[in-house]
Automatic annotation (TrEMBL):
This is UDP:flavonoid glycosyltransferase YjiC, YdhE family. Signal peptide: none annotated. GO terms for biological process: antibiotic biosynthetic process. CDD domains: GT1_Gtf-like. Gene3D superfamilies: Glycogen Phosphorylase B (3.40.50.2000). One of its GO terms (molecular function) is hexosyltransferase activity. The keyword Cell wall biogenesis/degradation does not apply. Pfam families: EryCIII-like_C. InterPro entries: EryCIII-like_C, Glycosyltransferase_28, UDP_glucos_trans. The lineage of its organism: Bacteria, Bacillati, Actinomycetota, Actinomycetes, Geodermatophilales. Residues 431-441 have a biased composition (Gly residues). Keywords: Transferase. Residues 279-400 form the Erythromycin biosynthesis protein CIII-like C-terminal domain. Residues 422-441 are annotated as: Disordered. It comes from Geodermatophilus amargosae.
Length: 441
């Protein structure tokens, strides 16, 4: 079959979608990849052809403001709403025209934030599956609104709080996004949607959730077409470690990896405080800068730095990962059974931090800009607590059990073969009534 795979031009989106493309081409399917120029080679390298962003404005995810001057620093609900409107929704009509220019396809598979596929699926009647590349953002009567960074309440007063917040978001953010979506739909000759804009990103036929139930807040109203598929993009293998690598692993001391991923890479947010906080700890530190090198005087004697590090070599030797909470990096660490300290401050990262803490596999610092002392105390807590590593191992086992790209493509093929929604076998993936939170409100 001919499949169009759409990925927003962000590193954390391109990697798992390219992994799906690899599995599809490996099974003999023809794949057309719709993504930005910066990530085209991720897909052509696995046998897909490339459909560029032309009618939708292509952009550099390292400098969003160059294309979308409205976006801010990504902190808080207002920033989330602004990004949602300008980067993801208002580009939708252009995305749809680009996708239709690729010609007829048997299946549309979209990064959940690439809304162009939903518009084309409706216009053409093409089967469509969406891939949730971050924790599930679908509204729920059991949860506070996604983006607030709040844990689900467990008391009557707390549940009333969550209900009030859902109503407030419906009157403000959702109403605003609904108006934007109506305008976008009109550009491609579609009537106003019957559902809200926040629901329009998820396919009613099949949603592939990049993750596992242990990393989600339990809910009783999870739609039946949502399937957890584990880790879609394990770390690539084969890259050589830096020359200083033997110096760290030969010390016998616990290895702490510090990273800010590929987005929000200002080192003053996390890298520099972490290095200062861990300078006198009985650990060694491997720091990934994600951009240029840090000043030499900012790297203490027990630490080393590189722009990128080979996770297939690094993670099996790592005791704790300190991260700003990018979902791909979190899943990579937990897939290797490594517990985390998460400093999530922007966009979806506070939500990710809460879920890591709720799973028991790490500590949520509840800030994206921690002090050196906060980092040092959290790392010491994780190193001293066997429970963190046990919970990380349990999440690793679940990630493996859910099947990754093979399970995901089995579901995609089933969607085309059978048509209509693809329901889960189990109604409640948590097996405990859905609404019981593991965290604290």
């Amino acid at each position: 079959m001919r499949v169009l795979v759409a990925a927003m031009p962000f590193a954390g989106h391109a990697a798992p979608m390219a992994a799906l493309a690899r599995e599809l081409t490996g099974r003999g399917h023809e794949v057309v990849a719709y993504t930005g120029r910066r990530y085209a080679d991720r897909f052509t390298a696995v046998g897909a052809s490339w459909q560029p962003w032309e009618r939708a404005p292509d952009f550099d995810d390292a400098d969003l403001r160059a294309t979308f001057p409205q976006v801010g620093d990504g902190r808080g609900m207002r920033a989330v709403a602004t990004n949602l409107e300008h980067v993801f929704l208002r580009t939708g009509a252009g995305q749809a025209r680009d996708i239709e220019a690729a010609g007829p396809v048997d299946l549309l598979v979209s990064d959940q934030l690439a809304i162009g596929c939903s518009l084309v699926a409706e216009r053409r009647g093409t089967p469509w599956a969406s891939v949730s590349l971050v924790p599930l953002s679908m509204p729920s009567e059991d949860l506070p609104p996604f983006g607030t960074g709040l844990l689900p309440a467990r008391t009557p007063l707390g549940r009333a709080r969550d209900a009030a917040l859902r109503a407030l978001v419906a009157r403000t953010l959702v109403r605003r996004m609904d108006a934007v979506l109506t305008s976008v739909r009109a550009e491609v000759d579609l009537p106003a949607a019957r559902s809200s804009a926040l629901e329009a990103f998820a396919s009613p036929q099949l949603v592939l959730a990049h993750g596992v139930p242990e990393l989600e807040h339990p809910r009783r109203d999870l739609p039946p077409q949502v399937h957890f598929v584990g880790q879609l993009a394990p770390p690539p293998a084969g890259r050589q470690p830096p020359p200083w690598w033997p110096e760290l692993v030969g010390t016998g001391r616990p290895l702490v990896h510090v990273t800010q991923g590929t987005y929000d890479v200002d080192p003053s947010d996390l890298l520099l405080p972490a290095l200062r906080g861990l300078a006198d700890a009985d650990v060694v530190v491997a720091a990934a800068t994600g951009s240029g090198p840090l000043p030499a005087d900012a790297v203490p004697a027990n630490a080393r730095q590189a722009e990128f590090l080979p996770y297939d070599v690094l993670l099996p030797r790592t005791s704790v990962v300190v991260t700003n909470g990018g979902w791909g990096g979190v899943l990579a660490a937990l897939g290797a059974g490594v517990p985390l300290v998460v400093a999530g401050g922007t966009l979806d990262k506070p939500e990710i931090a809460r879920r890591v803490a709720g799973s028991g596999a790490g500590v949520d610092l509840r800030t994206g800009r921690p002090s050196p002392r906060q980092v040092a105390e959290a790392v010491a807590e994780v190193l001293a607590g066997l429970t963190y590593r046990e919970r990380a191992a349990a999440v690793a086992a679940s990630l493996a059990r859910h099947g990754g790209t093979a399970a995901a493509v089995d579901l995609l093929e089933r969607l085309v073969r059978e048509g209509g929604p693809v329901p889960r076998a189990e109604a409640d993936p948590w097996g405990a009534g859905g609404a019981v939170s593991r965290g604290r409100s």
